[in-house]
């Protein structure tokens, strides 16, 4: 089981909690992202649920992004499909029109940061937790839909730094608008989530849904262009070779030697 599901609340205002528990680093594969997409679709369709919360009981990782060991075994002709699934998932997350909360309980790297910025309300644990869109560090260009959402979330002067894989602690992430609030411990983090859910429960869900659709519409309207650009990137030889080198370097615990 890659995700543990639980409910909070009763009546028409139930929140579905999604506990990420894929492996030791909570890394993601195409298969686990397809599973998570199905959870989104099921939660969207079920009138029982009024919100969704991403969290993790992992003591270190909220999600550490792509699973390097899995990607290493994927042939080149399947690489765009495997690596590109996170781009498709992000579009599904933006189309999910019920409120989404992210409890960033640890490291949120790559895909973990993607889940976070795609959420409507973002709370982060102080201390060892970190967040970074680390894609370019492994030779992958940041997809346009990620960039669009980042640009609509953080303060403008910090967009380029974020897209270049700057790494942020909780307080730093809050200061630039990437995170809404921070908490000193898990109990305080959960209190932030429950307080927000309690507030949202006083608002008609239909109003929240139509508002969220309008917020994300400009990004989704560019989705075809984004997907085309990403497919071209993931099939460009120098990018594929650099990415392969990055995955090998991670496995061998050394500094990568890129082609450019």
TrEMBL record:
The keyword Phosphoprotein does not apply. Pfam families: ECH_1 (PF00378). The keyword Transport does not apply. It comes from the Bacteria. GO terms for molecular function: lyase activity. Keywords: Lyase. One of its GO terms (biological process) is fatty acid beta-oxidation. Belongs to the enoyl-CoA hydratase/isomerase family. This is Enoyl-CoA hydratase/isomerase. It comes from Turneriella parva (strain ATCC BAA-1111 / DSM 21527 / NCTC 11395 / H).
């Amino acid at each position: 089981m890659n995700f543990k599901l639980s409910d909070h609340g009763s009546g028409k205002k139930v929140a579905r909690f999604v506990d990420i528990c894929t492996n030791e680093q909570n890394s993601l594969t195409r298969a686990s992202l397809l599973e998570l997409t199905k959870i989104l679709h099921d939660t969207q369709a079920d009138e029982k649920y009024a919100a969704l919360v991403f969290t993790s009981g992992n003591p270190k990782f909220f999600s550490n992004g792509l699973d390097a060991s899995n990607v290493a075994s994927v042939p080149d002709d399947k690489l765009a499909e495997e690596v590109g699934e996170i781009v498709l998932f992000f579009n599904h997350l933006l189309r999910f029109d019920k409120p989404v909360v992210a409890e960033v309980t640890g490291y949120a790297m790559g895909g973990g940061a993607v889940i976070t910025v795609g959420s409507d309300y973002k709370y982060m644990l102080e201390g060892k937790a970190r967040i970074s869109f680390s894609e370019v560090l492994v030779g992958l260009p940041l997809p346009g839909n990620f960039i669009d959402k980042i640009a609509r979330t953080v303060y403008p002067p910090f967009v380029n730094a974020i897209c270049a894989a700057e790494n942020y602690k909780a307080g730093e992430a809050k200061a630039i608008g990437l995170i809404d609030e921070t908490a000193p411990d898990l109990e305080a983090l959960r209190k932030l989530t429950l307080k927000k859910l309690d507030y949202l429960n006083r608002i008609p869900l239909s109003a929240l849904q139509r508002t969220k659709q309008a917020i994300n519409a400009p990004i989704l309207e560019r989705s075809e262009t984004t997907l085309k650009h990403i497919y071209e990137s993931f099939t460009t030889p120098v990018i594929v070779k650099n990415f392969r080198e990055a995955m090998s370097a991670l496995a061998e615990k050394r500094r990568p030697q890129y082609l450019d």
